[in-house]
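Protein folds are increasingly written down as discrete tokens. With that in mind, we are printing a sequence and the tokens encoding its fold.
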Amino acid sequence: MKNILLIFSLLAFIACDNKHKKNKANPPLNKVGETRISNSETLKVTTPVQKKQFYFVYENDTLLQKLVIKSLNTKLLEFSLTSTNKSKNKTFNIEGVAKAKNTSDLEIDEDEDGNAYPAQVYIFEKDCWLSFRIDMESKDKIRIVEADCDKFHNESCLFGSIGVLRLLK
């Protein structure tokens, strides 16, 4: 009786061990975007994601400011800012990545009509200091504040906004 029990236990152990090895060699495909090439390799298939760009503009009789936001999330803002003095035919550009200002205080800005709106603030501090103040609710207007950027433009083409830049739709 002991021999039968020992043989039965040994067979059960071998069967379980083979099943475990089989699952290890061919793990199930349960992840989206995963493709098996062979028993030992897996390849992640990814689809390139297109980043949506946003275009903001301010224009008066002298100055044209264009802001392209290449990517935006809660922590970073990738931008390209161009300021053109139309009467002097001068154009200056700056590009970079601004970081979200970490604060629990809500910041408020006003548009040209005096309407207040809460603003999410992103700060660029590489070669000069720029603050991008985006309307938190509609994300359709931005005010730009600058400091120490004189080496990148002359006084006729400021990076700081004179008025609110509006989203082009």
Remarks:
- The chain has a mean pLDDT of 77.
- Helices lie at 2-25.
